[in-house]
Write a structure and sequence with these properties.
Two copies of one chain form a homodimer. The first copy, chain A, has ten helices and seven strands. The first copy, chain A, is an alpha/beta fold and 248 residues long. In chain A, strands 1-2-7-6-5-3-4 form a seven-stranded mixed beta sheet, sandwiched between helices. In chain A, strand 1 and strand 2 form a beta hairpin. Chain A starts with a strand and ends with a helix.
């Protein structure tokens, strides 16, 4: 274990991976600010006093339950764009916003395709890309992640969306399928995430783990990233420091 | 129908696609020169008089038969890296090269991950990327295509390798799955290829078609691209002209 700049590194350079894959929502992009701004921009004409952050939180609150219905087999494979639309319909109904048009609902679903990256992401990813295969390992669908990459400038080498495995994280197959798609043994792949549960599931499948703090994921003053629950292989305050820690 | 620069364009700008996907071997990269050079570099130490081009042609000659065993269901899903290795073993045995080590064989299989693009490709793809989602729609596996993209600088937005469909072109599912992965109707996707048979299969599934001539795919003086067998939506002499034709 060494401190490398502001990172903690618990693996030796010989054990560094060939591919570095990233959780996206919360880790790469600030979904809460992006959705709050989109909601306020689009829904203020329907009624005054729209709290974009409150609606963003309610919408995101339905994220895990909507995927759980797929994970458990209660419903067939369904991509995140579709789950996002169903969850939005539910949130709008609860917030006295039933009048929102279909076109505006679709526009809001597509706001998940253009979420702002955290400020350290662009530089960090460009540095990591010079040494590693980089890509999302996300529950987002391939179309969502491809458009997000173009819209906000994420220089991915490959898009490993949920359809690669047709399984939502943290199911084991989601991690295994990503390594397999790159013809890599799990230990040649690192997952980077701001969430302990995601990293714990990745580690159980043999992947390396990189933890990046995102204290503001749920807003200033709210609990953000939790302290690391296990000694992850690399712990960094941001992507720039992560690139330094991984020799990129 | 209009002549746009040196291209023929048979669709109006309103019908232009959202994604432009590319056949890779022969259309984007010059597999024959790349493999010939790799073979000569690696095998000359085994015996003198190695003809890299002859071995490249024999190796590529086993490409369609090897995939046909998968297409027909005679063998389970097998990625191209594995098929390439089996075909190479066969070619080496026939060419008095049984002594080639496993490491050298693997190095040669990986030569398919670093094939040289045709000279017009880099500029053309960068221009197209500014307006369209671009990616390979290839029988190569995702790992092969991802590494090739990094090794030779192909600025793909998304990698749609054969595992997306688990079906080899020209089976219909290969084209359908690519459009589905991007949440696009088939007519919102264009396949660009130097091969009439690939385009014909794509058109049957509803994709737009772009034909680019590659007269030297099989070497100077050999029959290369065949004349267009159907009136494809766009016909261009190279990727730069294709970008102009598509308004990019």
């Amino acid at each position: 274990m060494s401190n490398f700049g502001r990172s903690t590194v618990r693996i030796s350079p010989e054990a560094f991976p060939e591919a570095v894959l990233f959780d996206v929502f919360g880790t790469v992009v600030d979904w809460r600010s992006g959705i709050a701004r989109a909601v306020e921009a689009r829904l203020t004409s329907y009624r005054s006093g729209i709290d974009g952050y409150a609606i963003a939180d309610q919408w995101r609150g339905l994220y895990q339950p909507s995927m759980e219905a797929v994970r458990s087999g209660k419903r067939p494979w369904t991509i995140l764009d579709v789950l996002h639309r169903e969850s939005l319909d539910e949130v709008l109904a609860k917030n006295d916003l039933r009048a929102v048009t279909d076109a505006d609902r679709q526009w809001l679903v597509n706001a998940w395709h253009r979420l702002p990256p955290w400020p350290d992401v662009s530089v960090g990813l460009m540095r990591l890309k010079a040494k590693y295969i980089i890509g999302p390992l996300s529950n987002g669908n391939v179309g969502l992640l491809t458009r997000m990459g173009k819209n906000v400038g994420l220089p991915w080498d490959v898009i490993l969306g949920a359809e690669v495995a047709r399984a939502y994280k943290p199911l084991p197959e989601a991690y295994r399928a990503a390594a397999r798609a790159l013809n890599l043994a799990p230990e040649r792949v690192m997952l980077v995430a701001a969430h302990n549960s995601d990293l714990a599931a990745a580690r159980r499948e043999g992947l390396l783990t990189g933890y990046v703090e995102r204290p503001n994921e749920y807003g200033p003053g709210k609990p953000g990233s939790q302290p690391e629950s296990e000694p992850w292989d690399v712990v960094s305050p941001n992507f720039d420091a992560l690139a330094t820690a991984l020799g990129a």
